Amino acid sequence: VIGRSNIVGMPVAALLQSMDATVTVCHSRTKGMEDFVRRADIVVAAIGKAEFVRGSWLKPGAVVIDVGINSVDDPSKKSGYRLVGDVNFAEAKAVASQITPVPGGVGPMTIALLLKNTVNLARHSLGLPRLPLRKTSVAAAKAAVSSLPKEQDYAVVVSAGANGDVWSCAVKAGALREQVQNAASCQSLPAVVLEAPGNKIAAPIMLVAMNQDGSRSKVVASGTSFEEAAKQIGA
């Protein structure tokens, strides 16, 4: 990931880590950036510099996702400029196996997900379950449905400092609570509870069934990682 902004770079890095990718974050102060890029199977460029990443930097067959959008002078255009990304598209296209164009690449996906979030907010306001964050296999969905009691309220309890940085925890906790909601047909998303470091809890990550008065009923799943807890409920 090239770029460390709180809007793109760091959230993308956390999202990739939640999907078990090994992530390297480069930025404007990184020395020898070309060497890091040449080892990458997937390159996400979001540094805000026009055509900054050159084709010679890329590993043959790499997948390139260009998030940047910059304007450069172009007298041949009526507007006097044209839009380019953070990657030199002409050079990278000859090396990469897949590459997103600018414009017309990441932008339409951003719009699609904004619309999905709008639909989810509308569904939530009506007491309906959210659309899943990611598609799950039929086998995993059946296993999850059979392992969690229906119409039960749940909470994802996380020990502060567990499973890495705040971004990573937030993404993984969000994914787990959506899996739980879909599996148990909850009317609302499970709460996320962050326990202070001094509080003693059974495990760093727990899925807890809740009573109607808001007290904790029992631990349904637990583990040292989100992935371990998810496996216990078949998610």
UniProtKB/TrEMBL annotation:
Signal peptide: none annotated. Keywords: Hydrolase, Multifunctional enzyme, NADP, One-carbon metabolism, Oxidoreductase. InterPro entries: NAD(P)-bd_dom_sf, THF_DH/CycHdrlase, THF_DH/CycHdrlase_CS, THF_DH/CycHdrlase_NAD-bd_dom. It comes from the Eukaryota. GO terms for cellular component: cytosol. CDD domains: NAD_bind_m-THF_DH_Cyclohyd (cd01080). Pathway: One-carbon metabolism; tetrahydrofolate interconversion. One of its GO terms (molecular function) is methylenetetrahydrofolate dehydrogenase (NADP+) activity. The keyword NADP applies. Gene3D superfamilies: NAD(P)-binding Rossmann-like Domain. PANTHER family: C-1-TETRAHYDROFOLATE SYNTHASE, CYTOPLASMIC (PTHR48099:SF5), C-1-TETRAHYDROFOLATE SYNTHASE, CYTOPLASMIC-RELATED (PTHR48099). Homodimer. This is Tetrahydrofolate dehydrogenase/cyclohydrolase NAD(P)-binding domain-containing protein. The lineage of its organism: Eukaryota, Sar, Alveolata, Dinophyceae, Gonyaulacales.
